């Protein structure tokens, strides 16, 4: 069955990576996920949806480990679950076998995995310590994750509406005036600005998104980093990661508000007629 399959290279797999991604995915997950994707693509007939289901099963087992207080096993399984979740999209783009249902399954599977792991982690630590703070931690993680994934598509929808209704800029007619050479006597840019530009170029070169705390880093902090450190790190690491994620969401909402200020409040129909009152 596999004899007629195309032999893919690692460069083929690298070409399927997202143009920009989280730093956790780029530096911690993709180096392993890309090589496993190559093995799966060349030696198996597993589908992207099959990988998504495997990722969900691993996530459920991770939640069970957390519920029984096995933090290291739970963290390791959560990492593997997320890595498999990264592989399904690469296989879909590599073999062009993605489906619309697969997009839904991947999205919903992520939410189920995070909520179940939050419940498992909270339950396991509450049963071990009797501290209600862990119940609040689990609820906070689930609510914050669901808010982010409900808010993101709505912000995208708002930006699309703004672009559709924003007037087009006037077209420049005639030659573009030449750019004046920079006067060497002008003061140089501040050092902080230069460092910021270097950081920006570094992030672009390595495909890393500019906002360094997103849902992926939040999940990694709560379900991988904190459990590997130990029980004492669960609350402080999760609280700090949650606060940083919340600040990032507030910043994104503020940027969206600035983006919408010059746009109409709702789409305008060109064929709409005024109704006399």
From TrEMBL:
Pfam families: CDP-OH_P_transf (PF01066). Residues 167-189 are annotated as: Disordered. The chain crosses the membrane at residues 54-80, 132-150, 208-229, 235-254. One of its GO terms (cellular component) is membrane. GO terms for molecular function: phosphotransferase activity, for other substituted phosphate groups. This is CDP-alcohol phosphatidyltransferase. Keywords: Membrane, Transferase, Transmembrane, Transmembrane helix. One of its GO terms (biological process) is phospholipid biosynthetic process. The lineage of its organism: Bacteria, Bacillati, Actinomycetota, Actinomycetes, Streptosporangiales. Gene3D superfamilies: 1.20.120.1760. Belongs to the CDP-alcohol phosphatidyltransferase class-I family. The keyword Transmembrane helix applies.
């Amino acid at each position: 069955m596999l004899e007629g399959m195309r032999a893919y290279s690692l460069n083929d797999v690298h070409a399927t990576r997202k143009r920009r991604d989280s730093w956790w995915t780029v530096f911690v997950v993709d180096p392993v996920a890309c090589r496993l994707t190559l093995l799966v693509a060349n030696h198996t007939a597993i589908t992207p949806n099959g990988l998504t289901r495997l990722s969900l099963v691993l996530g459920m087992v991770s939640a069970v480990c957390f519920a029984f207080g096995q933090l290291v096993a739970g963290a390791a399984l959560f990492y593997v679950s997320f890595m498999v979740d990264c592989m399904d999209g690469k296989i879909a783009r590599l073999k062009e076998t993605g489906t619309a249902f697969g997009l839904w399954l991947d999205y919903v599977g992520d939410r189920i995995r995070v909520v179940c792991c939050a419940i498992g982690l909270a339950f396991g630590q509450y049963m071990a310590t009797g501290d209600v703070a862990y119940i609040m931690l689990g609820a906070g993680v689930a609510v914050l994750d669901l808010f982010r994934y409900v808010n993101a598509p709505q912000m995208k929808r708002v930006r699309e509406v703004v672009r559709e209704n924003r007037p087009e800029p006037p077209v420049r007619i005639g030659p573009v005036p030449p750019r004046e050479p920079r006067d060497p006597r002008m003061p140089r840019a501040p050092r902080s600005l230069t460092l910021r530009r270097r950081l920006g170029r570094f992030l672009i070169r390595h495909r890393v998104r500019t906002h360094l705390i997103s849902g992926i880093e939040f999940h990694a902090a709560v379900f991988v980093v904190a459990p590997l450190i130990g029980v004492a790190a669960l609350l402080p690491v999760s609280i700090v990661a949650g606060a940083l994620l919340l600040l990032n969401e507030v910043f994104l909402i503020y940027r969206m508000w600035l983006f919408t200020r010059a746009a109409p409040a709702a789409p305008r129909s060109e064929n709409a007629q005024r109704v006399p009152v």
